[in-house]
Amino acid sequence: MISYQKALNIVLSKSKSFGLEEIDLEDALGRVLAEDIVAPRDFPPFNRSAMDGIALRFEDLETGIREFKCLETVFAGAENKFEIQTGECYKIMTGAAVPKNADVVIRIEDVATDLDMMSLLKHDFKIYQNIALMGQDLKKNTVAIQKRSFINPATVGMLASLGKSRILVERLPSVNIITTGDEIIGLHQKPFPFQIFNSNAYTLRALLMEDLIKPEKYTHIKDDRTSLKSAIEKHLNTDILILTGGVSAGDADYIPEIMTDLGVEKLFHKVSIKPGKPIWCGIKGSTLIFALPGNPFSAMVTFKLFVDSFIKKSLGIKPSEFLKLPINFDRSKTSSLDEFFPVINNGVCLDKVAMNGSGDIRLGNSANALAVQEAQTLKLEKGNLVSFLLW
Ligand SMILES: Nc1nc2c(c(=O)[nH]1)N[C@H]1C(S)=C(S)[C@@H](COP(=O)(O)OP(=O)(O)OC[C@H]3O[C@@H](n4cnc5c(N)ncnc54)[C@H](O)[C@@H]3O)O[C@H]1N2
Ligand code: MOO
């Protein structure tokens, strides 16, 4: 048995890019950029009026002129072909290109209009006021968004402003899922009292979907050595293979020995954590195999701690970091394992979530964080600072 940190380091040391692909900008949210995006022109690309008002010359204001003849109205989208002379102004709309020579925009609320004459109602001015200057946000040919950036809604908007309709991103890993167990049935079957529905298949799919990954194949196999071996062999063709069940000490827990038979290199079996202690992890060629414990909460926690961390590191996404807050209840343990438990992080402290161990189907569903009571801490008291991950 190895420690959580050792097991995590082993998993992370296997991280790698899954390759690159070009996608439409519409599909870019949540992906990781695989190219530097260079600004193809200055932004703004022209001196842009930030207000509806009048555009004029600062020089005129300095010489005391307060009344201007309005020549025309410049709308957004009109070509900037106008030149301005002393005592002249243009009416201008927000988003329009400021006429040449003009270096001040006065908002329309601060102007009195009499036919084509505009007189100023305020007398404090600054050069370039209400003008977003060409190139002030980004200069042409500079890197606007760096390779390996995580694409959030703001990045999508920025890519659109830069005119990028297709982008190069990190490819998501291909994943196969195999659940195991004689007692497990599909959701459309009628259960005998000793049977249970296959929740792990759905939980794992949902967890993967949070990372935008759709499993290639999903298979359920009964606890039969031969069928398990041939199913695993067939599914060793993706970047990641996730199994659940059959990894502890039961008579039908065949997974570790089947992996050896199939020539999968074992990276570790058993980690000093609860839930999830029996997790098995190995590698064959370019496939990383996570055999997660069958208990629903163990599968969920070990996915978050190991599979999700591997995916995020491989894609170049910042991993979730442990934060600390005071706990709002007492908690004792007798094991010498790091114990993970669901909590509600209310921003001030960590509230308790009802859970009866790793087989509890509630999966801490009202929780938004996973706290840890470290191996050496047998008792946590209300008010103690506790580490937790957001989830
Ligand atoms: N003698 C020992 N027994 C057990 C140990 C141990 O160290 N020594 N470890 C316990 C721990 S901790 C866990 S966790 C479980 C893990 O067992 P397996 O990974 O071998 O999983 P199974 O025995 O197949 O199933 C465990 C539990 O989970 C339910 N299950 C399985 N698959 C699904 C699924 N797809 N959907 C919903 N529920 C599922 C299954 O019915 C069992 O109740 O072992 C302990 N035992
Ligand atoms: O890992 Mo087990 O998950 O403690 O039940």
Features:
391 residues, alpha+beta, Molybdenum Cofactor Biosythetic Enzyme, Chain A, Molybdopterin biosynthesis moeA protein, domain 3, 6-stranded mixed sheet, 7 helices, binds ligand LQZAQKY5, binds molybdate ion
Describe this entry's structure for a reader:
The protein has seven helices and 28 strands. It is an alpha+beta fold. It folds into four domains: 158 residues, MoaB/Mog-like domain (Molybdenum Cofactor Biosythetic Enzyme, Chain A, 3-Layer(aba) Sandwich), CATH 3.40.980.10; 43 residues, no CATH class; 85 residues, Molybdopterin biosynthesis moea protein, domain 3 (Molybdopterin biosynthesis moeA protein, domain 3, Beta Complex); 68 residues, Beta-clip. The strands form eight sheets. The protein has a six-stranded mixed beta sheet, with no helix packed on it. The longest helix is centred in the C-terminal third of the chain and has 20 residues. It is elongated and about 95 Å long. The two termini are 26 Å apart. Bound molecules: ligand LQZAQKY5 and molybdate ion (MOO).
